[in-house]
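Bumping with the actual sequence this time:
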Amino acid sequence: MRDKRFVAEHRNGVLKKEQHYQLIKWVCDCAEHVLPLYEGVVDEGLKHALFIAKEWTKGKASVGDARKAAVACHALARESLNPVSIAVARAVGHAVATAHMADHSLGGALYALKAVKNAGKSVDAERTWQNKQLPKEIRELVLTGMREKEKHFKI
């Protein structure tokens, strides 16, 4: 079930446009932070998806563009056998999908944490880094949302 606090105002929700932009910028930072963990050369589709997400915040890409990029990232994840690369691709996929549904930002950050865990690195350090990137306007929204959603992730 979707957290109603992440529904955009234009869809009769409470999430303001600026908060939506802050969410996508934050989750893109989270996804980019784990991109170096991707096995081998980082797939250009992942870089393109992050580009589309950033362009969406400027009004230069559509939600349809973002959804198409997200689908491509998740397809890439399904093709991989490496658990770290799978989590990185899913983090990027959720980051760009945030243009469509703001609560995908939580999934992107959680998959970034999963990538770190699968790589044998410190989840606590990554979580601290993620939280430091949060703008104060969305901090409480994200932290409470993450606590709820994290129950479904094995981190």
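The tokens above came from a reply further down the thread. Residues 15-149 form one domain.
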